[in-house]
User: What shape does this take?
Amino acid sequence: MKSQVDNWSVDYEWKTVVVLALGFGLVGLDRWIIAPLFPFIMKDLGINFSQLGAIVGILGIGWGVSAIFFGNLSDVLGRRSVLIPALLLFSLLAGFTGLAGSFMMLMTLRLIMGVSEGAFLPASSAATSEASNPKRRGFNQGFQLSLFAFLGLGLGPIIATQLLQIVPSWRYVFMLVSIPGFLLAIFVYFIIREPGREKGEDHPVHHSRWGEVFGSRNVILAVLGILSSMCCIFVIGAMIPSYLMDVLKLSPQTMGFVTSAVGFGGFFGEFGVPGLSDLLGRRNAAIISFLAAIPLLYAFMHTGPNPTLLFVLLFFIGMFTLGLLGLFTGPIATEGVSPKAKATAIGLVSGSGEIFGGGIAPALGGYIAQHYGLPHVLDLAMAGLVLGLVVVLFLRETAPRFAKA
Assistant: This one.
């Protein structure tokens, strides 16, 4: 017997969450597997720290602009029209990254890759929201986003550093990790439904959504909050591998182990924090996460070459900061607007956060590392967390448990 929630079966709910979680996991893997390979790419292509930050930043800017545009387009054209082309394109470009022969070629590939990955996020998160029972919305959206951290920041460094012991160079790593995306596109085609068509509509109804989105207090605060949390997590994701090897003098394999803690912690955080918000409220979960991340980052900044302690600290930093990403782009964004503007709101939140937090912040981090030294990059991450704590104090509560019927 299948239970129905707004004409959707529980069977469809879990299938949607699983397939889109795997898709966003591949987004994370294709995006972040480059970070532990940076020390080798830098040596091979003659790239400095400023250029490294620019490579990370250009993908974030492409992602951000794309998410804003394609989030709205997904509300108009439907989810599959955006999801499938995005999956195919970012997988193809991940493989082409292994063919890059210069800094400019690498920049170009990562920019276009960011555009395709940015398109996937709002459409996939909105599709998950539409398939979910409202009481599980926070958990489901968080879990769907959590594989980004698990595969990209968790398994990614381990996969990269272990493959380097098998394949001839870093180039082959990119080619191998691009393959699963092509297969997953087939599953998305057969599993994901379009809500409008399921209710007897030939096409989703066109609405003016931007006025509603920009008029939502929580959506605007979510933009500022995700900017702050992304400033921390993406600076760490881009610069920590080099920090661990160049400053703390860890070996490549040890670096891969320690760096993976961000992803493993983020995996638990991205469904744990939104899931906790189903019980405690969106605002309280956000405040708790920022309050926990600040002292953890401070402790990391003052820890020497102790791999175990570094792993533990990065695990919990990743858990709370990536958990905040799931909270802002998931329930806070979607509950701040009407159903017709869900993907538009998600696109604005994730896109703005990517442009400034995921795009400009890593580039600024690279500049700081080049001119003032790698340790000072962590000061930028700390500033992001402090700003975020102030922002979330002004959120309005929207969790169904606390909202009036």
Notes: The radius of gyration is 20 Å. The first strand starts at residue 4 and ends at 5. The longest helix spans residues 217-247.
